[in-house]
């Protein structure tokens, strides 16, 4: 009788141990195909006055992701990558456009021209002819990437509208176009209107409608804003991302400020590019 009880106890223990084991149902990617890309033309026409017209149409096939649970029901993300010839989609000029779910993308002249000039920062004035490489990358999240075939396209972008509205745009049709530095990173401090002694030394030189430059002695540290009307904060420019040495900005009465140089007192050249929405600061 004792042996029967011991056997029953052992059997019960094995059942309990088996029932406590964690059952894992892992899902694995079994297969997928590289999308096949087709484009409407390899010679893309970009001309002022045709901004609303179609410039380039891309179509690609579904990568048909297959998981152990069946065909994927996840949303697939498609990233159109455009790079300069020879960049191999890794150069500092590469630009990307993300398309969710759809299997096509049509660029208007205005959209593609603006992307090439303001996002990829290609030289557009004077106009240059570029050979560009195009492909599509399919993915689910950050995984399961599949790469399409590549195309080369030729085009000559023209100067698109500036990324950031330049000074004077709404003030006498560019006739003024003035720009000053204001803040405790400058000798003037935050006084606005500027102190009389600094109205000239804190004023930028307009190199073109979209490019401004100022060489000025700065104390180091602090912060500053850029204003286009002496005494008016509402048409100011402030940094969006970056460091004291460079970054991006926008026109808005907001923070953060442009940070003053962390390298200390000295003479600096500040260059502000409204076409690209970027700025740079160099100690001289």
Automatic annotation (TrEMBL):
Pfam families cross-referenced by the UniProt entry: SusE (PF14292)
PROSITE patterns (alphabetical): PROKAR_LIPOPROTEIN
Domain SusE outer membrane protein: 25-136
Name used for this protein in its record: SusE domain-containing protein
Top-level taxonomic group: Bacteria
């Amino acid at each position: 009788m004792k042996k029967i009880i011991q056997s029953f106890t052992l059997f019960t223990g094995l059942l309990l141990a088996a029932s406590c084991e964690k059952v894992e149902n892992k899902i694995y990617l079994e297969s997928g195909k590289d999308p096949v890309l087709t484009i409407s033309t390899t010679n893309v026409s970009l001309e002022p006055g045709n901004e609303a017209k179609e410039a380039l149409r891309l179509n690609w096939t579904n990568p048909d992701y297959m998981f152990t649970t069946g065909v994927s029901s996840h949303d697939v993300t498609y990233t159109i990558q455009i790079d300069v010839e020879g960049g191999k989609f890794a150069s500092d000029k590469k630009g990307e456009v993300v398309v969710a779910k759809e299997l096509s993308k049509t660029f208007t002249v205005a959209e593609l021209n603006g992307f090439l000039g303001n996002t990829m920062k290609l030289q557009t004035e004077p106009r240059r002819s570029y050979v560009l490489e195009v492909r599509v990358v399919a993915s689910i999240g950050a995984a399961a990437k599949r790469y399409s075939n590549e195309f080369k396209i030729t085009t000559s972008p023209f100067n698109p509208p500036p990324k950031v509205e330049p000074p004077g745009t709404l003030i006498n049709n560019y006739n003024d176009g003035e720009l000053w530095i204001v803040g405790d990173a400058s000798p003037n401090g935050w006084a606005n209107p500027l102190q009389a002694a600094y109205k000239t030394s804190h004023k930028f030189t307009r190199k073109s409608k979209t490019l401004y430059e100022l060489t000025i002695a700065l104390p180091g540290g602090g912060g500053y804003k850029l204003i286009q009307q002496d005494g008016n904060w509402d048409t100011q420019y402030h940094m969006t991302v970056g460091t004291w040495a460079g970054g991006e900005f926008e026109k808005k009465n907001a923070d953060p400020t442009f940070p003053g140089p962390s390298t200390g007192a000295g003479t600096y050249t500040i260059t502000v590019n409204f076409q690209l929405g970027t700025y740079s600061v160099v100690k001289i």
